[in-house]
Amino acid sequence: MFFIYSGLHAVWWYRISHALWRRGLRFLPRAISQLTRFFTGIEIHPGATIGRRLFIDHGMGVVIGETSVIGDDVHLYHQVTLGGTGHDRGKRHPTLGDRVVVGAGAKVLGDIELGHDCAVGSNAVVVRSAPPWSTLTGIPAEARPRRGAPLAELPDEADFYVI
């Protein structure tokens, strides 16, 4: 089964291109990234930092930008964009904590941070940071406490805000 799974292939090729990127090479990792995009429909910049066990489900159209940081056990559905909002140098893409789930078609844009165990609804446009155990829905997305969160993990109600 894993021989035909495009999300897995994209992550494998990302790991190779990222290793080359960290060694100071630029052309070859970008070429690998673009070739992988051609075959899988998933574009992961070799400069992105991705934790363990990233799962890209039905990955066509997924884009992960250069300064994105993705924690462990993150799950991305199809047509998700982790994108920048300008041409500034430095950190310009989002940071996702551990165990974040991003629904189909969602856009997470800019140098923002989503805490661990957040869930982003399908087609949401997230442009502001959110605390752990948040659910983000809408355009622009609004954060609210996620159902099923352990009480000890929930931040104070004052920590939740409209995005």
Set down the secondary structure blueprint:
Elements (H helix, E strand, L loop, with lengths): L5 H17 L4 H14 L2 E2 L4 E2 L4 E2 L6 E2 L4 E2 L4 E2 L4 E3 L11 E2 L4 E2 L4 E3 L3 E2 L4 E2 L4 E2 L7 E5 L2 E5 L18
Parallel strand pairs: 1-4, 2-5, 3-6, 4-7, 5-8, 6-9, 7-10, 8-11, 9-12, 10-13, 12-14
Antiparallel strand pairs: 14-15
Helix pairs in contact: 1-2
Task: Provide an overview of this structure.
- With 163 residues, the protein is α/β, with parallel strands linked by helices.
- The protein is 19% helix and 23% strand.
- It has two helices and 15 strands.
- The chain has helices spanning 6-22, 27-40, and strands spanning 43-44, 49-50, 55-56, 63-64, 69-70, 75-76, 81-83, 95-96, 101-102, 107-109, 113-114, 119-120, 125-126, 134-138, 141-145.
- The strands form three sheets. A six-stranded mixed sheet has the order 3-6-9-12-14-15. A five-stranded parallel sheet has the order 1-4-7-10-13. Strands 2-5-8-11 form a four-stranded parallel sheet, with no helix packed on it.
- Strand 14 (134-138) and strand 15 form a beta hairpin.
- Helix 1 (6-22) runs antiparallel to helix 2.
- The termini are far apart.
- 36% of the residues are buried.
- Keywords: Acyltransferase, Amino-acid biosynthesis, Cysteine biosynthesis, Transferase.
- This is Serine acetyltransferase.
- InterPro entries: Hexapep, LbH_SAT, Ser_O-AcTrfase, Serine_acetyltransferase.
